Amino acid sequence: MNKISDRIKYWLQIFLIPVYWISFLTPRSRKIWVLGSTFGRRYADNARYFYLYLDEFEKKSIRPIWISRKKEIVRFLKENGKEAYYVRSIKGVYYCLRAKVYIFDNYSKDICFWLSGGARKVNLWHGAGNKATNFDNRFDYLRHPRNFREYISTAITRMSNEKPSHYILATSPTYRDIFASAFQVPKEHIIIEGYPRNVAMLNENIDKLLTGAEEKNLQIITGHKNKGEKVVVYMPTFRNTETMFFDVVNLEKFNIFLREKNIFFMTKMHPKSKAKKEFQRVEFTNIYNIDSDVDPYTFLEDVDMLVTDYSSVFSDFSLLNRPTIIFPFDYKEYSSGTRDEYVPFNEYIKVTKVYSQAELEKSMERLLEKDTDYEGRKWLLERTFSSQDEESSKRLCEKIKEII
Asked: Exposed/middle/buried for 156, CB within 10 Å: 0-12, 13-18, 19+?
């Protein structure tokens, strides 16, 4: 029944097409910038930290407004003195029509595509990794439909996705070239600058305006560190074979290892994860699951080690100069049916890779004792980040001002 309801709602969007064209006629203010994240569902990622930067340092010339589909996010921001509106409220619609600048980290639907005609759109995106994305991903059947039925059934979604007129944030010349292809935009529309989320991760003095859930996570991490435990977080990317983790890792035995070695192991699934319900049910003394919608950049600076697979969080975490273990237990399945890669996997990953529970445990113990993977991360950082420092958000703001 839910699937039928979702399809009806999807096709009803056809009636919003005239609204989109009318929105080109509304006068827009260069001072009003609206921001949103993850299809309007989250207060997170690059859009979140750029919004907080604008609100603290640029309010003399810019009026930053957060737009969300979740009333609890709007309520939280308003309670903390920020300007935010529910997208379907009168003020939400009004400011979506008045804003000259739309800033998001997925697509303009993070805010409201149907009201965005005539606005300058800046996509901060949400990762610089090795996964072929959007038009570069041959397994993306939204952009590469296999038949006429797929082409028609995804038409409205394509309409509200990337456009050649959009501006895209890339972290280096390497990713300028990659994103120009992936998003089908001219290279002149690529802004090279550091990620706002990494500015927040690297600077503990920045106010991240934490939610209650985020504060709770930090309290739990601090509690375990105060007991002398090392904190490790597992952050896999989303794909169809995620649940193979439970075939590879015996959690009961793994928890015994963690207790013996004084390690606290957190799991944080991708918001699109197909395995998040399974991880939510995990209950062990030294394994703790963080809600998939929580912004990881609120706690990564407090983590001693990252375990991941194909996620771009590997690049960001490397800025902290701490060990990462790559755990691609399903690489054969992943590479043959989910994503292509820009660089062959074994060339791109120059740090420790493991494929079994025994290898994972041995490598965790070894690298927490002595980090030997610095050179492998150094190559990655040089390729990925041209400039990532405390001034990245300021420079990004100036570059956006230049294009409006």
From this structure: middle
Cα(first)–Cα(last) distance of the chain, in Å? 45
Provide the domain count of the chain: 2
From CA 59, how far away is CA 186, in angstroms rounded? Answer: 31
- 3-state DSSP call for residue 354? coil
DSSP letter assigned to residue 341: B
Residues 280 and 361 in one domain: yes
pLDDT surpasses 90 at 4:
no
Structure confidence by residue, pLDDT tens digits, 297-317: 999 999 999 999 999 999 999
Quick check: is 202 in a domain?
A: no
- Reading the block at residue 364, the tokens are 């965790």
pLDDT for residue 1: 58
Strand partners, 87: none
Is there a domain that residue 12 lies in? yes
Closest C-alpha to 178, from 139, 105, 129, 124: 129
Residues 141 and 172 in one domain: yes
With CA atoms as reference, report the closest residue to 94 among 138, 32, 139, 18: 32
User: Per this entry, what is the length of the chain?
Assistant: 404
Q: Nearest Cα to 271, choosing from 248, 288, 300, 294?
A: 294
Under 8 Å between Cβ of 329 and 148 = no
- Nearest Cα residue to 108 out of 26, 51, 165, 153: 165
72 inside domain? yes
- Contact, 131 vs 339, CB < 8 A? yes
Task: Determine the longest span between alpha carbons in the chain, in angstroms.
Answer: 66
Domain range for 267: 210-384
Q: How far apart are CA 89 and CA 404, in angstroms?
A: 27
